[in-house]
Amino acid sequence: MKKLSLVATSLLAAFITGACTADTNIQAKPAVSQGTAKKLVKPNVLFIAVDDLRVQYGPYDFDKAITPNIDRLVNQGVAFTQAYSNVPVCGASRASMLTGVRPTINRFVAFESADKVAPWAPSIAKVFSDNGYTTYSLGKIFNNLTDHANDWSEFPWRPEGAKNEDSTSGNKKQASLLSRHDYVTSDGLAMAEKGIKNHPAFEKADVVDDVYKNGKIAKRAISDLKRLKKAGKPFFLAVGLKKPHLPFNAPSKYWDLYDESTIELTKTPLKAKNSPSQSDHNWNELRNYGHDGAMPKKGKMPDEMARKLIHGYHAATSYSDALIGNILTELESLGLEENTIVVLWGDHGWSLGEHTHWAKHSSYDVTNHIPLIIKVPGMTNGEFAKGLVESVDIFPTLTQLAGLPAPSSLQGDSLVPMLKNPQATVNDAVFPRWKNADSIRTQNYMYTEWRNKKNNKVIARMLFDHRVDPRETINVAEDFKYAQVVVDLHNQLVAHIAQIEK
Predict the structure, then answer these.
(1) What is the distance between the alpha carbons of residues 280 and 284, in angstroms, rounded to a whole number?
(2) For residues 18-25, average pLDDT
(3) CA–CA separation, 333 and 36 (whole Å)
């Protein structure tokens, strides 16, 4: 999004404090200046997508998982502290990012295939393939296995039994769910076999990393790196790790990193004051797991189960962090590190009890705020970039870094200026959306409007002032003190929607 004339243009005075121990050793290093940046020769790209990953680095005030390998990447790249998904659901988020096309009320809503919804937009795989790159897709990259499948050098790979688990058909069938949920313990399988609404929401298993499909994906990535090294051609390797997506399954050693009795519940468990009913939902994705009757079908999550779920989410996050470390270590040992751009991207955030929610699927900041780290050899050196960025900016960033032509269909902006100078800005605002809700996030505000799909009239709105309410506890959209802010943000949102729906 090119710069807009905003009411609120000042940067946040301070970020929220309270980083966990895993983050305290991260030291920001001086950025390598544009003049000294090394020219990469046909750079490789290692793109790592992590499902449902909350931000795990920097000064954020929520209980974080232990992620030493993500921390290591932060120390080598640029970590964008104000990165946002364009839509908080796996399928649509990935379809949008991988084509560089923004979602609308009728495009990239949930699990549609990008090649069906926006056939005019080439995927990032096609652009790299057409320009001499070997391109591989491992694990969950596009949500739907066959989406843009012919754009890759080989048909997208997933672990055995996971071929069609993310397609929109068949997900309610027991066989498909058992494959998708990937239980490995006898207790977990016994519980799941009682019925499709009785599956465990988490599992702790005394197994090695590659017993679960998540570990198999990383193992395949390491194997393919060796294959790509031997071939000697530039490559675009996309690796999609599934955890911490539900169910929160992980080997025991990652559960054992945490003392469950010390895990704190969210500080914002209540609905935001004055929030419209449209902002709420029943988080049925998690409720439908059942967990042998322990998961409430409605109402509040019991504290004991809440603590167990947070423990599981953290364990699953640390599990994927270890796999990321294994992949990065192999990249280094093969001598590929010096000419490989590394991207770590979370497709959207996830609520761990905030605003009563246990899910993605909302217009709150916590479900749209994402981790994004980009490492470019000779250009990045461990900096936090505080400017606003969004998922659609990744595609044009990578084509510019690789010196490839950018398709005219791209609707984001390159982040290369911020990689060269992390104090720079590219966007004055970013635009998440969910179903019939469109949001605008500026440095100071998160503003959302819900529209009637038939007549396009605004039926509800929500505004949070992040300067004084970073946890989003009070909707001030109807507060007269913010009347002009609402008008200005509404006008910018209307202009944005009109532009992308042409």
Answers:
(1) 12
(2) 34
(3) 25
